[in-house]
Amino acid sequence: MKAEVIAVGTEILTGQIVNTNAQFLSEKFAQIGVDVFYHTAVGDNEERLLAALEIARDRSDLIVLCGGLGPTEDDLTKQTLARFLGRDLVFDEAALARLDSFFASRPASSRTPNNERQAQIVVGSTPLPNQTGLAVGGLLEQNGVTYVVLPGPPSELKPMVTEELIPLLVSQNQKQQLYSRVLRFFGIGESQLVTVLGDLINQQTDPTIAPYAKTGEVTLRLSTKASSKVEADAKLDKLEEKILTHGELSQLMYGYGDDNSLAAVVFELLLSQGATLTAAESLTAGLFQATLADFSGASQVFPGGFVTYSLEQKSQMLGIDPEKLAAAGVVSDFTACAMAEQARKLTSSDYGVSLTGVAGPDRLEDQPVGTVFIGLSSHKETKAYRFMIGGRSRQDVRQIACMHAFNLIRQTLLNGGNLL
Fold this sequence. Notes:
Blueprint lengths: L1 E7 L1 H4 L6 H12 L3 E8 L3 H12 L4 E5 L10 H9 L3 E3 L1 H12 L15 E3 L3 E3 L8 E6 L2 E6 L3 H19 L4 E10 L3 H7 L1 H5 L5 E7 L2 E10 L2 H16 L4 H4 E4 L5 H12 L3 E5 L5 H7 L12 E2 L3 H8 L3 H7 L4 H15 L3 E7 L13 E7 L4 E7 L5 H21 L6
Helix pairs in contact: 2-6, 3-4, 11-16
């Protein structure tokens, strides 16, 4: 089934509101195996909406119209669809009853004739009840094309789609659903990842591979259509196995899912190993610690840490020799190692990490913007790692530096506590 979403409302075209409904609908339809091929936005104009419907009818099996179901004169969606299909509008009794109930406790003068429009549907439609508003939706089929009308406000549209529309579509199209799996990679760019996987991407049919670049990392979304999750998992497992045989991708992949992160992986590893971690931050001003503390139960793995920007505070708070600090400089492997080791010792933690470097916009100690030193200390040893994060904003340098720190800790925890 090829679908098209038509958002109706001049306020979308003028930029007054963002069309979040299209994203929501595409995501929901993908979950049931309905492919959305087109997103269209049209203003509150009958002739332009008729033209959009004519185009959509010739290229789509499912046409979903969002918005324009309210009581005002510019709410034209149902009226225009009725005209386009050569059908009349009739009142849905359940929607009328809801209108009666809504206005029963309000002054009689508050109900005007145009309110009745919200209870109308196109003849032949299956009503889609509105649990959070007054405008009823509808679904009908004509000449092999299914038409759906939905309210514009997301607070009304989302429940109607989830509770009413999706079950109807599933009952009509139960053959296959779309299943996806997201693989997350750190330490490789999108262009490099696509190059490494060029043979698989160029030959893909089903399942498919879609790369997405994010700040500091890349994800791959593997998708397949199948009649069951068991069938889908078998196909996705096979593709994932092929992907991870390419180069060092098995080492660069750190997790699964849209909402996962390096920080979450590290937090779970620390919990499972009963280990504690502290941090001393210069470059990132507490961003690393704030990220770790976002997780419920963070106190089990994070006893506390330090933010030390100046040489004086590095010396006073962490107990580092000021002469050695001055000689080495802020941006150095010595300072990174000393910060990580002293932070670990002062908090009696299993691991200590430090971040120091140049976020920009200017050079520091003759080091270019994007130079980052990360120190990592365990009971066994302490090391410093140098990274160059180029072509990024100040905030990106800080965020990616934190990701490098979390990744170093992840690798250490997976390596039996041995630093790489």
